[in-house]
Design goal:
Blueprint (H helix, E strand, L loop, with lengths): L5 E7 L19 H13 L4 E5 L13 H6 L8 H10 L5 E7 L5 H14 L4 E6 L4 H6 L8 H19 L7 E4 L4 E3 L9 E2 L4 E2 L14 E4 L4 H10 L2 E4 L4 H17 L8 E6 L2 E2 L3 H11 L4 H15 L26 H5 L8 H10 L6 E2 L1 H15 L3 E5 L5 H17 L12 H5 L3
């Protein structure tokens, strides 16, 4: 393969793993230093970005109760990812920072203004992870009692994106003069009201933030449903997705790139990142031992995985037997994470809920295991067979040891093979993302 492999780090500003065996004594997930240290490791590995998930409410989906989520510090307990992105950006120089913001629960003008301001403060390193929010608790926190169905939220999000795009371009790139001698700050002829009026939104404009280094934030999305993939094909610069084997990766990759072409885009304008958490060991034996530990979650870890999956799908998985195959559900009946079940269930495989939760807890999508050389070879094979864009390593913020081992042992092997950059060449996140 000729193109470079790109990497990102994915986590959230929440207590995930707060009491795990790899959480150092004194670890406090609330403090910025935890994330800044991990970001520094990622920057040493020449990653493109750090991306922070977010949730706008504590769900009660699992067992119809808040109790498990609060008792064990599970999904839904989150601090604001935008604040964290700013703190991480201040401690890094090249690494992009991605914040998750909901189209359904954020005013478009606020979003456009906030991300444009962050793009200035980071010198062009901000990404927006676009979500429509599938958690009814988030809607109720904003005083909205009913949540639109899955596809309708994407229909509304399309208009949201049109409005934000108009706001980001309401100042022409050369509108700002700031000529001290003449006293002219900007050319009024190059700043425009947008007078946008759609089915869902209205905005007069212009945006009161100057043109940004990137022009607009880098746009990231995680669409896996048919409607989500259409949305990503139209708007996203990059997509992150979890797939379990080469065939599934290839099908998704070809499908999404084909959708981008139908939207009038070149396929290389949309980067696809597969979510992974490889098991790396200095020897094959150590890697196998680590994999075995991952595949034997504690009861709490098992229920945490079930609660997380329930939250993502808006389906209470506690009503199903742990050791029986999960019934096939219509993806249309699932409000979020529509492909969560189909990733596991195929014509040949009907896993039990325990098996699904165990794999979810382990996090090792695509079953990548081995020594640094073996892991690097597996990553190269995936990119060669699939077509090749990159990976997002999903690691809890406190697990610095894991990321250091990956960056210090696997990345150098890939660099020696000419597959990962040795230095950043771009000035902005988008520059680095589209470096070939």
């Amino acid at each position: 393969m000729s193109n470079k492999i790109h990497f990102g780090w994915f986590t959230e500003y929440g207590p995930i793993g707060w009491n795990g065996p790899d959480a150092a004594e004194g670890y406090d997930w609330r403090q910025p230093e935890v994330y800044q240290k991990m970001a520094a490791i990622c920057e040493r590995g020449r990653f493109d970005f750090a991306l922070f998930a977010d949730h706008l409410g504590i769900t009660s989906t699992y067992q119809d109760s808040l109790d498990n989520y609060i008792r064990y510090g599970l999904n839904g307990i989150n601090h604001d990812s935008t604040m964290l992105a700013a703190m991480v950006a201040a401690s890094t120089k090249h690494l992009g920072v991605g914040t998750t913001i909901s189209t359904s629960l954020t005013a478009p003008y606020q979003l456009a203004r906030q991300t444009a301001s962050l793009d200035h403060l980071t010198k062009g390193r901000v990404a927006w992870n676009i979500v429509t929010t599938a958690n009814i608790a988030g809607f109720k926190n904003y005083g909205i009692e009913e949540m639109k169905d899955h596809d309708a939220r994407y229909d509304q999000a399309d208009e949201y994106m049109e409005l934000c795009s108009r706001l980001w371009s309401s100042w022409e790139p050369d509108a700002v003069i700031m000529d001290r001698e003449s006293g002219i700050f900007a050319d009024p002829a190059k700043v425009h009201r947008i007078n946008f009026e759609g089915e869902y939104y209205k905005s007069q404009g212009p945006l009161n933030v100057l043109p940004t280094p990137q022009g607009r934030p880098t746009l990231i999305q995680a669409g896996s449903s048919a409607r989500g993939k259409d949305f990503a094909a139209r708007w996203a610069d990059a997509v992150i997705v979890a797939k379990h084997n080469l065939d599934d990766m290839k099908r998704y990759y070809d499908d999404l790139k084909g959708r981008a072409v139908k939207m009038g885009r070149h396929p290389d304008e949309l980067k696809i990142f597969f979510i992974i958490k490889p098991v790396v060991g200095a020897t094959e034996e150590i890697a196998a031992q680590r994999q075995q530990l991952r595949m034997n979650p504690t009861d709490m870890e098992l229920h945490a995985a079930l609660a997380a999956m329930s939250s993502r799908m808006s389906v209470d998985l506690s009503k199903y037997e742990l050791d029986e195959p999960v019934p096939t559900m219509s993806e249309k009946s699932i409000q979020g994470g529509q492909t969560t079940l189909s990733r596991y269930q195929t014509a040949e495989k009907r896993p039990t809920l325990r098996e699904m939760a165990t794999e979810e807890s382990a996090g090792n999508k695509a079953n990548i295991i081995g020594t640094p050389e073996q892991v690097a070879a597996q990553l190269e094979e995936i990119m060669t067979q699939v077509g090749g864009d990159g990976f997002v390593v999903r690691v809890d913020a406190h697990d610095h040891g894991y990321m250091e081992e990956f960056v210090d042992t696997v990345i150098p092997v890939l660099q020696d093979r000419g597959l990962v950059r040795r230095e950043y060449t771009g000035k902005t996140l988008r520059d680095n993302l589209f470096e070939s």
